[in-house]
Amino acid sequence: MKKRRALYASATLGYKNFLFVDGTIRNDWYSTLPVAKNDVLSNRMAHHLYLAI
Amino acid sequence: MLAGVQNGRSGVYSLVAWYGGHERSFTTARLTPQPNNAREFFATGIQTNNNVNFSKATDNYSFRASYSNLDVRGLLPNTGMNKNNFNVNTSLNLTEKLTVSTNVNYITNNLKGEIDDSYANATSGSFNQWFHRDLDMSIVKELRGLKTPTGIWASWNHQNPNTYDVNNQKNFYGAYYWYNPYTYSDLSPIITRNDRLFGNIGLSYKLSPSITINGTYRKQQNTTFTEQKYSSQLFESGVKTAGGNCPQCFGQYVTQNTFSNRDNFQGSLVYSKKIKNFQVDGDVGFDVFHQVTKSNGGFTNNGLNVPDLFTLTNSKLMQPL
Predict the structure, then answer these.
(1) How many CB pairs under 8 A join A and B?
(2) CB-hemisphere CA count at 13 Å for B242?
(3) For residue B209, how many other CB atoms are within 10 A of its CB?
(4) Which whole-number Å values give the CA distances from B299 to B79, B119, B252, in the listed order?
(5) Predicted-complex ipTM score
(6) Which of B9, B63, B223, B240 has the fewest C-beta atoms under 10 angstroms from its C-beta?
(7) What is the pLDDT along chain B (321 residues), one digit of tens a residue?
(8) Per the CB < 8 Å rule, is A2 touching B290?
(9) Side-chain half-sphere exposure of B78, counting CA atoms within 13 A
(10) Torsion of CA B36, B37, B39, B42, to 10 degrees
(11) Where are the domains of chain B?
(12) Do B283 and A10 lie within an 8 Å CB cutoff?
């Protein structure tokens, strides 16, 4: 049996509906990885600028 | 053997003329090209889809139930598929703040026939390399049930008449390398059944106008059963057919079961709020996932001891334990 556990958080901050910043952080623990180091941390950051003319 | 034997009169003995019991037995015919015979072998696929569903929704609940059936007749003889799909989708507002929702699907799928494009398979694996372009496919189809009095299935591919031996009739009448492709599929019933259950149940609670808490359980379970019954008559009607390219031509039983179960338990807290010029969205959550997959199966080797008894222990060669 394979197991995976994960905790994550993500957030988006928008300013006046045209400038956005978002990020995610997530940690996964896998039963299939060696016990000494069985987790993987991943994160993502992005920012968007929407221009409408 | 080539297309036929010249008899010096009105035509040639066709490949099937050497078998008694049909209207072309022991007669000659014109040697006529059949440029479209390979194409004529493939039937037109037919797909039928039927669906019925019921739904109703009010302020406090929504409900939808549906059933659909997909039936497919394949391009190859004795092939097809039948799929049933049941789905129930509901959502119920228990209170103003608490909602429970479910989505359940059950799918059964029955696949029938040998669907094979590998080297030297009984159909597409021969038509462009070893088949004859003078064979009228409608005659090949008509003679799919033809047997000699000693029980050998007729084929278009047999040895020269001078190999006939009254004590070893298979040497001439048997399929030398190739069976009648229709007869082959009649002697090779194959089924694969797949049962799949998946869905989820979720609770959602609105803690405040900007905060919602969700909890969801998801599950997917899949079981399959495959059974391939290659008749011993393939071996009894074949000269050089059984071997590396066709282990099933000895007569063979192949079976496999698989089981797969996956589930997720997920929880999250979702925040969404507009503060002056800013819009803030965020969530934190967890996901616990379990997966189990199991399979077992087996096949007989080198033929069946008792003809057409389809069990693994009936294998001529047993695998060491």
Answers:
(1) 55
(2) 20
(3) 8
(4) 22, 20, 7
(5) 0.88
(6) B9
(7) 344 444 445 577 777 889 999 988 998 888 889 999 999 999 999 999 999 999 999 999 999 999 999 999 999 999 999 999 999 999 999 999 999 999 999 999 999 999 988 888 988 889 988 899 889 999 999 999 999 999 999 999 989 989 999 999 999 999 999 999 999 999 999 999 999 999 999 999 999 999 999 999 999 999 999 999 999 999 999 999 999 889 999 999 999 999 999 999 999 999 999 999 999 999 999 999 999 999 999 999 999 999 999 999 999 998 655
(8) yes
(9) 18
(10) 160
(11) 5-317
(12) yes
Hey, what are B27's tokens? 């007669």
Say whether residue A1 is in contact with chain B using an 8 A CB cutoff.
Answer: yes
Instruction: Return the half-sphere exposure (C-beta side, CA atoms, 13 A cut-off) of residue B87.
Output: 13
| Residues of B (242-281) whose Cβ lies below 8 Å from A | 277-281
CB-side exposure of B175: number of CA atoms within 13 Å?
Answer: 29
Give the long-range contacts of residues B265-268, CB within 8 A, separation 24 or more.
B265/B215, B265/B216, B265/B217, B266/B214, B266/B215, B266/B216, B266/B217, B266/B218, B267/B213, B267/B214, B267/B215, B267/B216, B268/B213, B268/B214
Q: Distance from CA of residue B136 to its chain's centroid? A: 28
Backbone φ and ψ of B277, nearest 5°: -85, 0
Question: Which amino acid is residue B202, in one-letter code?
Answer: G
Q: Would you call B15 exposed, middle or buried from its count of C-beta atoms within 10 A (0-12, 13-18, 19+)?
A: buried
Taking the model in full, what pTM does it have? 0.84
